[in-house]
Write a structure and sequence with these properties.
Order of helices and strands: EEHHEEEHEEEHEHHEHH
Helix content: 40-55%
Shape: flat
Strand order of the largest sheet: 2-4-1-10-3-9-5
Structural class: alpha/beta
Amino acid sequence: MARCHHLLLLLPLFLALAAANPGQGQGHHGEASAVFIDATSHRYLRDQQADDQGVSMSLNDVSAAVSILLGFAPPTSLPAVSSSQLNKVLLPNPFDRPRAVFLVEIDGSSASADSFVSEASNIFKTRIEGANNAATGLTDKDELIIIHSDESLGLSGDHLDSELSSLANWLEGSYQKSSGKLVIPLENGNSLTLLLNKDADLEFASSLASLLETIKRAIQVHEDFSGVISPAELLVCHFTGIKALEDEYASREIVKQGTEVVRRAVTKAFQSLHKAYKGKIAGLVISTKEPSSFLGSIIDAPSSLHILRRLEEASQANATGSVVLVRKSLAWITGIILLVSTLIGVCLLMNVPLTRDTLLYSNVKID
């Protein structure tokens, strides 16, 4: 997978700020933290002012921001105060939107955003306040591809071993099939060792592998559509691995190590996406203490149907282009042959001797 070494995207903010306890009441999502991210090479976000550091947005506002980044108009029901909030986050150029968003939700609260700040990226931090009904504005009619991480991977048997081996290579670690160990090196020289016979360790590794497969799949789909059609692309990942480690090991060292590994993995994922999409992609990372349905609220559109339909359209477009090319080639070849034949015939006729024994006079009775 391609890596972008000259850009350090601020992706590791996925753990953001610790979220408040979920609110009470049916359908209420509580409060979480979110970070909008783009790179300095291609800006889509405003610089966050000092007085906006503690800003909060409703889930509806976040949904509208995602819709705008994808190149769609926000919901018509968006109130004026929400428009003002979006104006603080997004640059005001409607003709320059990335039309691709990597949306990640991380369950768990083992780190703070301040420990992941990178000066090489542009970010906008905010809190998400609970909302009973988030109006996203994304519908089945939009030219949109949605790729879910849970659609990308089914870990079982030989496929499990293959994906874990790929994951280990990606993170410069090792996977020992015989002992069921996945070893991932850390920046401080230590290593995170996962015992895959434990459910929590396996879920953590599966979440990482699913993230990797989602990135690969997204890049492949993006390349398939390149030069054919240009739909908006939304990549959705719900990472539950850290929460699984917290439930199993509480606040032990393995949770901190897992957090560092996820930070590296998401950073590498964004670097690969940034290079594949030539900078035209933005990120939104949401951190919650408890499992939530933020992603389900923000996204209200079918996913696999979008992908299948777009792939079919792309395939049909490629097939139509091939047929047209063949027909044009045959037409040109036939035309050239006819032209050459006509010229040869004319030349032969012009050089025929005008005597009575020629074919021109074959039907003439000789006296």
